[in-house]
Amino acid sequence: MGTQPISTAMTEPPPHHFGDPRSPGRFRWEQTDSARVLHVLGEVDLSNASQVLAALDDLGDRQLVVDLTEVDFIDSTGLGYLVERQSSTGRGVGLKVLEGSQVDRLLDLTGLKSVFSVDLVSD
């Protein structure tokens, strides 16, 4: 009667396009034992930001992390939706950002680094 090992396998479906199918924006998610991570790739702007927020809503009640390390561009609409999600959850949303990227600079300029838990990743 031994104990069964706890599975730490992650579920990661293939990337889904969001917004206009011709848009360079897409996302994929993974689930770990402690968090659900939304990996956003490409661009987040007015044409697709609402679908990023919808993807965050679908991630459930675990700790939420939004990985923006592969985002080339995010506009004020995209940031606004992240702030909205941050405000609506009691746990907060963690952001993973590539140091020196456009997203990193925008978070600095807007003062949002103090609003989110930001994990800066070196290139």
Write the layout of secondary structure elements.
Blueprint: E1 16-17, E2 26-31, E3 35-44, H1 49-57, E4 63-74, H2 76-88, E5 93-98, H3 102-110, E6 117-121
Parallel strand pairs: 3-4, 4-5, 5-6
Antiparallel strand pairs: 1-2, 2-3
Helix pairs in contact: 1-2
Molecular structure report:
This protein is of the alpha/beta class. The chain has helices spanning 49-57, 76-88, 102-110; strands spanning 16-17, 26-31, 35-44, 63-74, 93-98, 117-121. Strands 1-2-3-4-5-6 form a six-stranded mixed beta sheet. It is globular.
Sum this structure up briefly.
The chain is 25% helix and 33% strand. It has helices spanning 49-57, 76-88, 102-110, and strands at 16-17, 26-31, 35-44, 63-74, 93-98, 117-121. The longest helix has 13 residues, at 76-88.
User: How much is the radius of gyration in Å?
Assistant: 15 Å
Described by strand count, sense and barrel closure, the largest sheet is: 6 strands, mixed
Q: What's the total count of β strands?
A: 6
Mean pLDDT: 78
What is the first-to-last residue Cα distance? 47 Å
Portion of residues within helices: 25-40%
Strand fraction:
25-35%
The secondary structure category is alpha/beta
The arrangement of helices and strands along the chain is EEEHEHEHE
- Read across the widest sheet, the strand sequence of neighbours is 1-2-3-4-5-6
In terms of per-residue confidence, which ranges show pLDDT below 50 for 5 or more consecutive residues? 1-20
Q: What's the helix count?
A: 3
The general outline is globular
